[in-house]
Amino acid sequence: MTAADVNLYLVGFMGTGKTTIGRAVAQRIGFTLIDSDQEIERQQGRPITEIFTQDGEPAFRALERAFIENGHPAERAVVSCGGGLIVPAGMLELLQSRGVVICLHASIETILARTARHRHRPLLNVEDPDARVRALYAQREPIYRRAGTMLLTDSRSLSEITGHVIRTWRREAAEFVRRHS
Ligand SMILES: Nc1ncnc2c1ncn2[C@@H]1O[C@H](COP(=O)(O)OP(=O)(O)O)[C@@H](O)[C@H]1O
Ligand SMILES: O=C(O)C1=C[C@@H](OP(=O)(O)O)[C@@H](O)[C@H](O)C1
Ligand SMILES: [Mg+2]
């Protein structure tokens, strides 16, 4: 594999911009964009909210694991991961064995603002979504902190973040190929 073909995995908390930035990055570098949530919804023929209510969160995590293990291309793909995808043990290591992992970051205030109007995230469809975001953020922070290069997205434009992600991917893809050759 050459560095120009190495997959990019975007991870991070809900609302950090993985879906939005992934689309822009894929377009700029000519890769296929795959959003894990959209792919799981397509396979299942039902929205994430329904998967959570009908089958529960553990069933959704199993679908995410199957998607990463054998449900996406091994090369030339930008994969925008759902925010909780790297939380179960072993998932981060799996991503790191398949390509470059970049973690998008944002402050709690930014996340609250970016997720407030949406209803497609089942974990936030609760009476007090702010408290839920704060609790999940605290719980998951150590996991995101060790999930590869972290890029701050607060008050940065989409094009600035996209450029930064692409530069980081180029550098780390070259290292990835060296390590795996
Ligand atoms: N850098 C940014 N500046 C302003 N708005 C952003 C930025 N990144 C994402 N958004 C907005 O925040 C919301 C959540 O973004 P999304 O890409 O769905 O995040 P994620 O996939 O990480 O949950 C969307 O409405 C998106 O347009
Ligand atoms: O953090 C999470 O556990 C989740 C994040 C969501 O994706 P985004 O991070 O793209 O919103 C989606 O996978 C699901 O609602 C669960
Ligand atoms: Mg998303």
Automatic annotation (TrEMBL):
Record's GO cellular component terms: cytosol
Assembly information from the UniProt record: Monomer.
Source organism, top-level taxon: Bacteria
Record keyword Amino-acid biosynthesis present: yes
Binding site for substrate: D37, R61, G83, R140
Main location: cytoplasm
Cofactor: Mg(2+)
Encoding gene (name): aroK
Function, as annotated: Catalyzes the specific phosphorylation of the 3-hydroxyl group of shikimic acid using ATP as a cosubstrate.
UniProt GO MF annotations: ATP binding; magnesium ion binding; shikimate kinase activity
Name recorded for this polypeptide: Shikimate kinase
One Gene Ontology term from the biological process aspect of the record: aromatic amino acid family biosynthetic process
Catalyzed reactions per annotation: shikimate + ATP = 3-phosphoshikimate + ADP + H(+)
PANTHER family: SHIKIMATE KINASE, SHIKIMATE KINASE 1, CHLOROPLASTIC
Binding site for ATP: G15, T16, G17, K18, T19, T20, R121, R156
Localisation: Cytoplasm
Keywords annotated in UniProt: Amino-acid biosynthesis, Aromatic amino acid biosynthesis, ATP-binding, Cytoplasm, Kinase, Magnesium, Metal-binding, Nucleotide-binding, Transferase
Family to which this protein belongs: Belongs to the shikimate kinase family.
EC number: 2.7.1.71
Binding site for Mg(2+): T19
Cofactor note: Binds 1 Mg(2+) ion per subunit.
Pathways involved: Metabolic intermediate biosynthesis; chorismate biosynthesis; chorismate from D-erythrose 4-phosphate and phosphoenolpyruvate: step 5/7
